[in-house]
Design a protein that fits this description.
4-stranded mixed β-sheet; 4 strands; alpha+beta
Length: 130
């Protein structure tokens, strides 16, 4: 019985992996006047897109005072947190509207930084001392 369950789990995992390989995810974020809207979309190999999840976050009175860039960054944060189970360890497309024009001008990699260390602090301190 245990062997049968184990083989079933292996088959299920292999099937799930195959299904994920057939499409990639798009995290679509838009900031409106009073809300952040985010959608999780899957794009198939034939380029068809299908929304599979979405949410609307009403901005608080404090968040409404944020700049456009800060609201977009907040929207990306909320979207990635909300859709983490789908996109964790997956290559995905981040689709943003107003930040996109700025970000497309650069070729960069997002890297995790542990703790409170910021390498720029040393440079700033040296400039202030000199």
């Amino acid at each position: 019985m245990k062997i049968l369950i184990f083989l079933s789990l292996i088959y299920f995992y292999a099937s799930a992996q195959q299904n994920f390989d057939d499409y990639n995810f798009i995290v679509d974020v838009d900031v409106l006047n009073h809300n952040i809207r985010a959608s999780l979309i899957r794009r198939y190999e034939d380029q068809d897109e299908e929304p599979i999840a979405e949410f609307l976050h009403p901005l608080t009175s404090t968040e409404k005072k944020y700049s456009r860039m800060e609201k977009n960054t907040l929207g990306v944060y909320y979207a990635l947190t909300k859709f983490n189970d789908f996109i964790d360890d997956e290559l995905f497309t981040l689709r943003v509207y107003s930040m996109g024009k700025v970000l497309l001008d650069y070729d960069f990699v997002v890297e995790y930084k542990k703790g409170d260390f910021y390498a720029g602090d040393d440079v700033i301190m040296q400039q202030n001392d000199g």
